[in-house]
Amino acid sequence: MRPLILAAPVLLATGIGHAALVREDMPTAAQIAACTPDAQRFCLRYLADHAAMRACMIEHKKQLSEICKEAFAK
Fold it and tell me: What's the pTM?
């Protein structure tokens, strides 16, 4: 549970999901919720860098959970 508590503020600090900074390359709140476990598992070291986090998640695309893949398929 502790990594999730630590990740949420970092995700928000990077602008992910922040309504004032919504951009096409930014994940939605639903995508963040679905993919946070995968982000922590594969890309934890990139939580403070949105571009690096995105690249890391793309690199691990085949390894992502089904719920995360489905969130981005919508």
Answer: 0.65
